[in-house]
């Protein structure tokens, strides 16, 4: 941009203008310095650990090499263009590499589960439960059908409970002027920070301990798991929907009210339809959160080796429980089965996550093409406006 | 905001509870007859009920956990908060939450110590360095990291990562022995340590720290940033003098939210730690227990055991509640939280 304002290459009469300084730009020399520093840091670290002291493992090696690289880069740059510029570049390099570092564990984890789980991912995994499978049998025997059925039923039931409650609460927080909004918002924030194990313990303490022995409905079963999961989904969905509702332009509400519609009518026919894609995104994100929860299910669904397609009586398996039990077994075949389950779980979560982003993105594009006005809140806006996973609603600013 | 068209009423002409008053300063417009229809009343009823349900739920959690932990408290009394052993089968039963709480806090502190610099780096990169596509990509990446279930982190940490960290732990134990937490006994195992659990948990709390700080950084007034640059500051100078001071409350609050998450982290920690309560500051050695992980491991068994676990759960509930509330207050009280309606 600076170059566009005053092109340096313009032929001028008289003395050439002084070379333009662009303190923020990385030149070839800078990249050379980065490369050189990296190389010298690696060799230096190798020298330290391989020659002078004993080994530190490759992780430790990388950490030390990284620090050495930063120090060397800072020193060289300071020597070359001064301390002030060196600090700036060092900060740029540190912050950029720190952000890129986020990618590493994610890729590592996803890749690991993929590599370990893929060999066991065969159709029979989706058609068999663990009937007749003994620990000595190979990993190809048996499957996770019972876990998948359980997960579907539990999350589905939890959705039936949570979505109406969460949407009503979000409407309460954003569309009414009740004095209770403040305490409710604080409580929703607090609930989203509640450990999931506490949600499970709560359901266990409230229903299973006092009534579990007498009534099937309140024993270990899928319905109890659904209740625990709704405790976890409720704050997630409420907060996301609230952010979405905030993004609905006030002009729409005012137009509706000025046409004589009541408040209820405005919310039902204007606000909620406008925010539909955002609400869908919120629900999908809530599902993604709930489907991987393990801890609360231990006290509620309890787990079971075979298919139990009735969520209202008797213990039921779920995908996370299946994985948790399998990988804590000593037999390799069980661990392999657990990895396959983990892969399925991961694919479900990643798929839901992609779906949530897709719902928003697709709407944005089509709307921009047709050029409709006014701009409705879409999933893309929501991701921008979201205070992030688990952040208090209070942080989220009103969208543009 | 929705009622802006109806706001041109003089406030004192309307009863207090009627919505739609406020604004209209300086003018004397007509009064508005704002009587809710029956549908409106039903609507208000439904939404208020939903709000109250949520409000009661959290209270009920505390009440029921307390009711179920009565037996444990009756058995050991206040010594529950001073005992660090957990021998529930001995007569008389001796158990207390201290051993668990210490482990929980240690793991959480390790996790947050690792996650804060990385999270702030990521937030700064997103808010001040990245542009366009890269920014969107990184925001998505942080969200994705938050979406990965704790179970998968635990699986990965248990079966892959811990063995990779052991040499590092061993090296730290050999060469940094002067630092008390890094001391290790000669024959101690290193693959189920709080250090490793902390590293895995740090990945799980990183997203929330990054998300909150990003949100706060992005609210930095642009004119202050531009002023810093116009005075000849470098970008780092601008960040150090404007963005970081402005976002300090957000960094502290976000870190405390992360701490709250780390305290409650369950499944991964239950897989990664041996869950034997003991008070130790040696984070590199095998050993350590956290409240949540311990509950998962010891679930089942006698009535007293269940009751004692409920009591531990109640303590955990209290710990996370206090941490999260404090974090919310810090964020909303900080300068970057001004103008946010709470």
Short overview:
Chain A has 400 residues and is mainly α.
Task: Describe the overall structure.
The complex is a heterodimer of chains A (400) and B (342). With 400 residues, chain A is mainly α. In chain A, 67% of the residues lie in helices and 0% in strands. Chain A folds into 2 domains: 28-118, no CATH class; 145-361 and 382-387, MetI-like fold. Chain A is flat, with a radius of gyration of 28 Å. The two termini of chain A are 27 Å apart. Mean pLDDT of chain A is 83; it is low at 1-12, 362-374 and 388-400. Chain B has a single domain (94-339), classed as MetI-like (MetI-like fold), CATH 1.10.3720. Chain B is built from 12 helices and 2 strands, in the order ααββαααααααααα. The longest helix of chain B is centred in the first third of the chain and has 32 residues, at 98-129. Chain B is flat. Chain B starts with 37 loop residues before the first helix and ends in a 9-residue tail after the last helix.
Tell me the strand order in the biggest sheet of chain B.
Answer: 1-2
Largest interface: A-B, 120 and 123 residues
Question: Measured on Cα atoms, how large is the radius of gyration of chain A?
Answer: 28 Å
CATH architecture identity of the largest domain in chain A: Orthogonal Bundle
Q: What kind of sheet is the major sheet of chain A?
A: none
Low-confidence residue ranges of chain A: 1-12, 362-374, 388-400
How are the secondary structure elements laid out?
The complex is a heterodimer of chains A (400) and B (342).
Chain A: H1 2-5, H2 28-52, H3 57-81, H4 83-100, H5 103-117, H6 145-175, H7 181-192, H8 196-211, H9 222-247, H10 250-258, H11 263-274, H12 276-291, H13 295-298, H14 319-327, H15 332-370, H16 379-385
Helix pairs in contact in A: 2-3, 3-4, 5-15, 6-9, 6-12, 6-14, 7-9, 8-9, 9-12, 10-11, 12-15, 14-15, 15-16
Chain B: H1 38-68, H2 70-76, E1 86-87, E2 94-95, H3 98-129, H4 132-147, H5 150-175, H6 194-217, H7 222-230, H8 235-246, H9 248-264, H10 267-272, H11 291-298, H12 303-333
Helix pairs in contact in B: 1-12, 2-12, 3-4, 3-6, 3-9, 4-6, 5-6, 6-9, 7-8, 8-9, 9-12, 11-12
